[in-house]
Amino acid sequence: MGTNVKRERQEVLKRAIAILGGESATAKALGLTKQAVWWWYRCPDVHVVAMEELTGIPGRELRPDLYPKVDKTPSTDGVAQTASN
Question: Which of 59, 40, 36 minimizes the C-alpha distance to 49?
Answer without folding.
Answer: 59
